[in-house]
Amino acid sequence: MEENRFEIPKADYFTLNYNIYCGSMDGFNYRLNAKSKETLTVSVWLGRLCLEKSELAAEESFPLDEEGYQKALSWLETEFQTLHEGGGT
Known about the structure:
four-stranded antiparallel β-sheet, 33% strand
Protein backbone atom coordinates (compact mmCIF):
# COMPACT_ATOMS: atom_id res chain seq x y z
CA MET A 1 0.00 0.00 0.00
CA GLU A 2 1.26 3.47 -0.91
CA GLU A 3 2.11 5.89 1.91
CA ASN A 4 -0.20 8.90 2.12
CA ARG A 5 0.36 12.22 3.89
CA PHE A 6 -3.34 12.67 4.69
CA GLU A 7 -4.95 11.24 7.82
CA ILE A 8 -8.14 9.91 6.26
CA PRO A 9 -10.35 7.21 7.80
CA LYS A 10 -10.21 3.73 6.29
CA ALA A 11 -12.54 2.74 3.46
CA ASP A 12 -15.12 1.30 5.89
CA TYR A 13 -15.81 4.81 7.18
CA PHE A 14 -17.30 5.63 3.79
CA THR A 15 -18.80 2.27 2.80
CA LEU A 16 -20.69 1.55 6.02
CA ASN A 17 -22.60 4.81 6.50
CA TYR A 18 -21.80 6.88 3.38
CA ASN A 19 -20.02 9.49 5.49
CA ILE A 20 -18.33 12.74 4.48
CA TYR A 21 -14.79 13.58 5.59
CA CYS A 22 -13.08 16.97 5.21
CA GLY A 23 -9.56 18.09 5.91
CA SER A 24 -6.90 20.61 5.00
CA MET A 25 -3.15 21.01 4.84
CA ASP A 26 -1.51 24.42 4.40
CA GLY A 27 -4.40 25.94 2.45
CA PHE A 28 -5.07 22.78 0.40
CA ASN A 29 -8.56 21.60 1.32
CA TYR A 30 -10.30 18.34 0.49
CA ARG A 31 -13.60 16.56 1.00
CA LEU A 32 -14.36 12.89 0.48
CA ASN A 33 -18.06 12.29 0.10
CA ALA A 34 -19.76 8.93 -0.30
CA LYS A 35 -22.63 10.36 -2.33
CA SER A 36 -24.16 6.96 -3.01
CA LYS A 37 -23.50 3.30 -2.34
CA GLU A 38 -21.43 3.15 -5.53
CA THR A 39 -19.43 6.39 -5.59
CA LEU A 40 -16.81 8.20 -3.51
CA THR A 41 -16.35 11.78 -4.74
CA VAL A 42 -13.21 13.72 -3.83
CA SER A 43 -13.26 17.52 -4.10
CA VAL A 44 -10.29 19.85 -3.64
CA TRP A 45 -10.04 23.62 -3.32
CA LEU A 46 -7.50 26.18 -2.15
CA GLY A 47 -7.69 28.92 0.45
CA ARG A 48 -9.10 29.59 3.89
CA LEU A 49 -12.81 29.36 3.13
CA CYS A 50 -15.18 26.39 3.05
CA LEU A 51 -15.97 24.67 -0.24
CA GLU A 52 -19.32 26.42 -0.57
CA LYS A 53 -17.55 29.81 -0.48
CA SER A 54 -14.62 28.79 -2.71
CA GLU A 55 -13.91 27.90 -6.29
CA LEU A 56 -13.58 24.16 -6.81
CA ALA A 57 -10.06 23.36 -8.05
CA ALA A 58 -10.71 19.73 -8.97
CA GLU A 59 -13.17 16.92 -8.41
CA GLU A 60 -13.08 13.23 -9.25
CA SER A 61 -15.30 10.23 -8.50
CA PHE A 62 -14.18 6.70 -7.69
CA PRO A 63 -15.93 3.38 -7.04
CA LEU A 64 -16.91 3.02 -3.39
CA ASP A 65 -14.81 -0.06 -2.66
CA GLU A 66 -11.27 -0.71 -1.39
CA GLU A 67 -9.69 -0.31 -4.82
CA GLY A 68 -11.57 2.93 -5.48
CA TYR A 69 -10.61 4.20 -2.02
CA GLN A 70 -6.91 3.58 -2.77
CA LYS A 71 -7.25 5.30 -6.15
CA ALA A 72 -8.93 8.27 -4.44
CA LEU A 73 -6.03 8.60 -1.99
CA SER A 74 -3.51 8.47 -4.85
CA TRP A 75 -5.49 11.07 -6.79
CA LEU A 76 -5.63 13.32 -3.72
CA GLU A 77 -1.86 13.06 -3.28
CA THR A 78 -1.33 13.94 -6.95
CA GLU A 79 -3.63 16.96 -6.66
CA PHE A 80 -1.76 18.12 -3.56
CA GLN A 81 1.55 17.91 -5.41
CA THR A 82 0.12 19.69 -8.45
CA LEU A 83 -1.89 22.44 -6.77
CA HIS A 84 -0.04 23.03 -3.50
CA GLU A 85 3.57 22.08 -4.07
CA GLY A 86 3.40 23.12 -7.70
CA GLY A 87 2.68 26.71 -6.72
CA GLY A 88 -1.12 26.72 -6.95
CA THR A 89 -1.50 28.50 -3.59
